[in-house]
Design goal:
Number of domains: 1
Structural class: mainly alpha
Order of helices and strands: HHHH
Number of strands: 0
Oligomer: single chain
Number of helices: 4
Shape: elongated
Distance between the termini: 25 Å
Length: about 150
């Protein structure tokens, strides 16, 4: 018998552990990135700030749409169009995070001469990366479970 995580457990984990973290921390990351770019003044810092500014509405908009959908879980049917939209959001968020990683370095290691704001920014980005990727994995699993539970008719 295969152990299957019950959807309410996945929902609780996605919202309590990951959504709440992103809602709470992302608004602080944007001004940190802007301040770090202003202080450092180089192209890399400005590119990083631009990407983070771009990430905020994409990620928070996705969370807002998703939480509105999940409020009525499982009573509402998750249509293919909605599921595809959530999946497309996930792909866009992951692509942007991967671009941020390419700018910062694969391990979010701040430069040796980084000031405290820049060091804090890189630490927050590493945490955000972990939470967003875990959140997306849970959501994709949940959508696949929902589709399977409904026999692919959702």
């Amino acid at each position: 018998m295969t152990d299957v995580v019950a959807p309410p457990t996945l929902l609780d984990d996605a919202v309590a552990n990951h959504h709440d973290y992103v809602w709470a921390r992302l608004p602080f990351v944007v001004p940190m990135a802007i301040a770090a770019a202003r202080r450092r003044g180089d192209g890399t810092a400005h590119e990083l700030a631009r990407l983070i500014v771009e990430l905020q509405p994409l990620l928070l908009g996705h969370l807002d749409r998703e939480e509105a959908l999940l409020v009525h879980w499982p009573s509402t049917s998750v249509t293919t169009r909605i599921r595809d939209g959530m999946h497309a959001d996930h792909l866009a968020v992951i692509a942007l995070i991967e671009h941020i990683r390419s700018v910062t370095g694969t391990e979010y290691q701040a430069r040796a001469d980084a000031d405290p704001t820049e060091r804090a920014l890189y630490l927050e980005l590493a945490r955000l990366d972990d939470h967003v990727k875990a959140q997306i994995a849970l959501e994709e699993h949940l959508m696949a479970w929902r589709q399977g539970a409904l026999g692919g008719a959702a």
